[in-house]
Model the fold of this input.
Amino acid sequence: MAYSEDHIALAAEYALGTLDADERAQVETMMAVDTEFTAIVHAWEYRLGVLNQMVGSVEPRPIVWENIKAAIGHSTAQQAPMALPEAPPPPAPPPPEPPAEPVSAPVVAEAPPVVVTAANSNVIQLSGRAKRWRNVASVATALAAALVGMLAVQVYRPELLPEALRPKPRIQTVEVKTPAPTPVPSAQYVALLQRDAGSPAFILTVDAATKNFTVRKVGADAEPGKSFELWLISDRLPQPRSLGVIGGSDFTARPVLADYDAGTINAATYAVTVEQAGGSPSGQPTSAPIYTGKLIETVPAAR
Done:
């Protein structure tokens, strides 16, 4: 069925709890026989209940109850029992009066009937409707203002709220990615391994940062069944140290210089001997070096 604004306002005031006892009984009777009206009441309870969720209960101070009792005429002190006045004796009956001559009763003019027009009825209905909606709007506004105030306190001054209403601190982990450091160019050293200042047979390149070296074969070819072996010769070492066999490809890379300090690497003489296939079995040169050279700096280290 279609409901008027009065019914809707009545349901809203019932949800707010502002009706008197008779009006509440009227609403509860309607709810008992009308499921659609019950749904309207529950809808108002759901809407208005959201505004009341964050408003905690406040216990009034004891002085408030004392003031209320004083205002309605009650006192906390023990009151004296109320004394009722004694009833006076009944009056004596009056003596009988002589019969009087009949007198005609005066004619009393009847008051004109009050006519309630449709306009007056509309005014009364509109007045009651406006009063109900004013009550609903006032309570809803008060709840909304309390909710806004609660939210503002939670944001700016949460320490003023009770412990149960304070927002829980949120811990947010932020990953900050730092840019990868720009690689700094390291110093580069080169040695031309040659015989009697002739054309170089090998080019040795050493990286100062990693101490890795690369040997490039330029103009030397090993005899069948023989291998070229690279040696490090330094006055800081008691005997030459093998840096491995130079492979048959154009480039041979080795990381074996990591065991030596920079001073030894930069000042050493690098030599190539011809050994049996696979290198010297004793770990020492078996023949005189045929190609030698020393490192020179070709790319300085970044400052």
Notes: Strands lie at 188-194, 200-207, 213-217, 226-233, 241-246, 251-254, 269-276, 291-294, 296-299. The CA atoms of residues 211 and 261 lie 9 Å apart. DSSP finds six helices and nine strands in the chain.
